[in-house]
From TrEMBL:
Domain of life of the source: Bacteria
Pfam families on file: Pribosyltran
Record: residues binding xanthine: 20, 27, 157
Record's keyword terms, sorted: Cytoplasm, Glycosyltransferase, Purine salvage, Transferase
Compartment annotation: Cytoplasm
Similarity section: Belongs to the purine/pyrimidine phosphoribosyltransferase family. Xpt subfamily.
Protein name: Xanthine phosphoribosyltransferase
Provenance organism: Ruoffia tabacinasalis
Catalytic activity reported: XMP + diphosphate = xanthine + 5-phospho-alpha-D-ribose 1-diphosphate
EC identifiers of the protein: 2.4.2.22
Length: 191
């Protein structure tokens, strides 16, 4: 059993609306041992894809994305939700992303300076539900002319349409933990 799966079973909390709270070890307080095991799983799966950049969205995907980028020896880039004064509107790629957990839609962007047509980009994120974040990041990559070589997800809610949507678009999706159900407050995994 993976370290991440064990932590989900021991510390994950299920809330109404199919929300899985894992902020005690993954996306608020971060357990470095969990992140290290996540990094290793993603590295083993994606190491031969020719990755030149790792991309995530702020803020929950940053910790695993940074560790994977470090292991692959490439830069990590994250899509921002607020435009700083140092980036002009014509110097960015931009898309809309809806958050399932927060039920909000954000305008996210990355600077054109850090992504170009020669890049082979690995997307890393903490959760996959409806696929909005990963799909939005893939859109930013497409705008730049770069190639999405894979999508790595820490926790996938397989009972929601995200994986199917991404795979139907031709993406290679690898999830460390695939959750089959959160019915009755119980966490049930595939496998």
């Amino acid at each position: 059993m993976s370290n991440l799966k064990q932590m989900i079973l021991e510390h994950g909390k299920v809330y109404p609306g199919n929300i899985l709270k894992v902020d005690s070890f993954l996306n608020h307080q971060i357990d470095p041992h969990v992140i290290k095991s996540i990094e290793n799983d993603f590295y083993q799966y994606f190491k031969d894809k020719g990755v030149t950049k790792v991309l995530t969205i702020e803020s929950s995907g940053i910790a695993p994305a940074l560790m994977v980028a470090y292991r692959l020896d490439v830069p990590m880039l994250f899509a921002k939700k607020a435009l700083p004064s140092t980036i002009k509107s014509e110097d960015k790629y931009e898309t809309l992303v809806h958050s399932y957990t927060k039920n909000t839609t954000s305008n996210v962007f990355i600077s054109k300076e850090y992504l170009n047509k020669d890049d082979k980009v690995l997307i890393i994120d903490d959760f996959l539900a409806n696929g909005e974040a990963a799909y939005g990041l893939a859109d930013l990559i497409e705008q730049s002319g770069a190639e999405t070589v894979g999508i790595g997800i820490c926790i996938e809610k397989s009972f929601q349409p995200g994986r199917e949507r991404l795979e139907d678009s031709g993406h290679d999706v690898y999830s460390i933990c695939r959750i089959k159900s959160l019915d009755d407050g119980k966490i049930e995994f595939y496998e």
